[in-house]
Amino acid sequence: MGTFPFFFIIIYVFPISYILFTILKFLDSKRRNQDCYILDYQCFKPSDDRMLTTDFSGDIIRRNKNLGLHEYKFLLRAMVSSGIGEQTYGPKMVFDAQETCPTLEHTTSELDEFFDDSIHKLLARSGVSPSEIDVLVVNISMLTSLPSMSARIINRYKMRQDIKVYNLTGMGCSASLISVNVIQNIFKTQKDRYALLVSSESLSPNWYTGNDRSMILANCLFRVGGCAVLMTNKSSLKHKAKLKLKTLARTHHGSKDESYNCCLQKEDEEGRKGFYLSKSLPKVATMAFVDNFKEIAIKILPISELLRFSLAMFIWKWFKNSSKGGGGSRPIINMKRGVDHFCLHTGGKAVIDGIGQSLNLTEYDLEPARMTLHRFGNTSASSLWYVLSYMEGKKRLKKGDKVFMISFGAGFKCNSCLWEVTNDLEDKNVWEDCIQRYPLKNLANPFLEKYGWINEEDDPTTFKFRD
Predict the structure, then answer these.
(1) CA distances from residue 315 to 118, 174, 269, 436, 449 in whole angstroms, order as listed
(2) What is the CATH code for 35-301+338-421+428-451?
């Protein structure tokens, strides 16, 4: 009888403990294989001779014989209020004065410059061979080519034949986070993988040369850029990683006609192709943002903040609906309880201001997006990585910090995610030659000073710009 307890432990407890240990080990292994890390990323910076200075922008406008005086004034107001400076980059074909008749060569060479620069630098710096890439996800929204741009990259870098390839088009400025989500889902089912995310846009075939104000605006905002991102789910490399994906949320309002029609690639009445932005865009973006925020907030904020906000909203609504009225200003959730840094899409000054107001962010929070818009413009889906690179260049990102990314895109879509910084980051990257000049206190550009003298008596077809 004295040996029974020991025998009982051996026969019953040990097998149960072993089974539990095995299950926990399996679950832990499965969780680790689902991790999604960024090892490194490389933003593209064209050569200085591709900068769209005020003078050269004036030359481009002057070449457009379809513009009248009112269109000139509209462009002036748009450029002055855009938040864009004089060092953003344009496609080569506008420097060759061929924006009215871009060729396929202009389109492919614009992207080849990016592929040859950023992908090469990224792989060389990380020590990863092109043949080691298991997954390739490419997003270039306004270009559908045959073969695809993903096939073009595979050919240029001689990647292996069993690589898993995803070529995304039509996803708009939010395509980067869609690509991240594609890679995240692949990592959940396949362990020990390298993934290469390539994010850019093709401006050459979409530069608008007409006089429709809703389509002219795109020329004022969109600029050449791109980013290559190396990702992995190898747990053995987590100590080398820069960021770890915590959660991601995607919202799509394509079923709503107003949302679907607010951002379109289309032709104007004269058949000139361009990108149309409707006046309802701010309203549509707000609706998408609200729905996306409802989903992501519960994943990234502590329960105490969610409860505080819920109680504050209940009290506010009760007072508002009571016979007394009032209730004060609408409560705002405190994102700082779960987020340290905000990586906002540089869709324009109004977009940055709107998100800042909605989330009650400070100028320090908005600085990376504002400075990126000024220095690089709206580079579409790749803009988030330029903002992230600014934070890194300013040595803001410390181990354990949480970075919130949010982007908007045609469709209409709003996508967001939360990253955790896994190592102290301080690579100046694409900002290396100018990071010390930022932040700028005055973001005003010289367009008003240069061209603000144009008046109603000027003949838009004959007047000359001031020297």
Answers:
(1) 52, 36, 52, 47, 50
(2) 3.40.47.10
